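The instructor's notes for this session suggest beginning with a concrete chain rather than abstract definitions. Hand out the sequence below and ask the class to guess, before any prediction is shown, which regions might be ordered.
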Amino acid sequence: MPDWLKTGWRHVWLPYAQMQTAPLPAAVVRTLGSKIFLADGKVLVDGTASWWTACHGYNHPHIKQEVAAQLEAMPHVMFGGLAHEQAYRLATRLAGLMPPGLERVFFTDSGSVAVEVAIKIAVQSRLNKGERGRNKILAFSGGYHGDTIGTMAICDPDEGMHSLFTGLLPEHPVIALPRDAASIAAFDAFLESNAHRLAAIITEPLVQGAGGMILHEPEVLRRLRRAADRYGLSLIFDEIFTGFGRTGTMFAYQQADVAPDIITLSKALTGGTLPLAATIASAALFSDFLSDDPQHALMHGPTFMANAMGCAAANASLDLFETEPRVAQAGRIEAQLMAELAECRALPDVVDVRVKGAIGVVQLAKIADPAGLRGRFIEQGVWVKPFGNVVYLTPALTISEDELTQLTGAIRSVLGAV
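After discussion, reveal the predicted structure:
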C-alpha cells in the first residue's frame, strides 16, 4: 500500500460510501487509453470511463496539448466582467451543435449545478413574466439529476440515495415516465390537473443512468414535447450522462427528432479531463430575462465559471468528435456488447440484459455485496463498479475490441461464479 494512501485514508471522505465498512480504494498511479495502472503493478481495463467521462480514453494527446497550452497562457480568469477566447469559442460551438433557437450557454463547474441553473431558468422565466405559482418541476421515477439540494428534489424519492432528506428538500411531483398505456394515462391526468403549478418537465433522454440504466423509447420524448407545448411548459433534457455519443448519436434527443427548451451537459464535455458543465437555453427563455429591472437577471455565477483550462479541454474534445469517428465507434461497441453480453441472460439471478449505444447493462435480482463483486472484477483485470442491482459497462468510445472482450468476458466469468 502506498504511504500516501495509508496516511490520507484517515482524512479522505469517499463518495457514496459507508466509511466504517468501506474497503480501501484501488491506488491508481497512471492512466492511458482504456487502461488504469495501479500502484501494486496491476493493469485494469476500465469499463466505466470514470463515470462515463473519458469518452476519448485517458490522456488523449490532443486534449493534453491544448490544456497544457492554456495552462501556460492563462489557467483561469473570473467570468464576471472579463472574457476569454476559449469560453466564447466553446459557447459558439455548442450552440452550433444544438437545434435552431437553442443558443444561450451558461457555464458551470458540475452537472448538478448545470441542472440547478436549468431549474432556476425555468422558474425565474415565469416570475419575470409575472406568473406566480408556477414553480414546480415535473420529474420521473427512476430519474437522477444530481446531489445538490435542488437536484435531489427532482430525483426519484424512493431510490434511496436521497430519502433521508425528505422534509428539507423542495417538493416537486415525481411520477412514472409515460411509456405504456397506464403511465401515459396517469401522465395525461396529472397534467390536466396540475399543469398550472408547473414551470417545466425534466428527463434524461433514452436512458435514466444512475437510477438503474433504465431505457425508454424515443416516442417517450416526443410525447413529453407534445405535452410541454400543449401546456406551455419548458422541456429540460438532462444529457449529462447521455450526451456526446454515449447512446449512439451525438445527443440522445436527436433519436427522437425533437428539441428541448433547455439542455444540460457535463461529464464527457471535457473528455474526462477537467470539471465543466453547460446549461443551454432557448432564445425565447433568454428573452424573458431581458429587462430594465436588475432583478430580472439570472443571479448565478460559480467562482470557476467557464474555467479557461476546462473550456480548452472541451474545445479539444469537440475537435476530436469532428475529426475522429466517435459516433461510429459507439455503434461498433453497441454491436459487440449485444453479442458478447447475450449469454449472461442464462446466468443465475440475471433478470435482464440490455444495451443502448455504448452502454451495456446486466441487471441482477440483487447485488448483496457490490464491493466484493468489484474486488472479483479487479482480480480479473478489469475495472467494473456495480451499483444498485446492475453491473454495467460505459467504456471509452475508443476502446479496442480486445479490451471490450476482456470486460464482457470478466462479467460472464464473475457473474457465472457468484
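Then share the key points. The radius of gyration is 22 Å. The mean pLDDT is 96.
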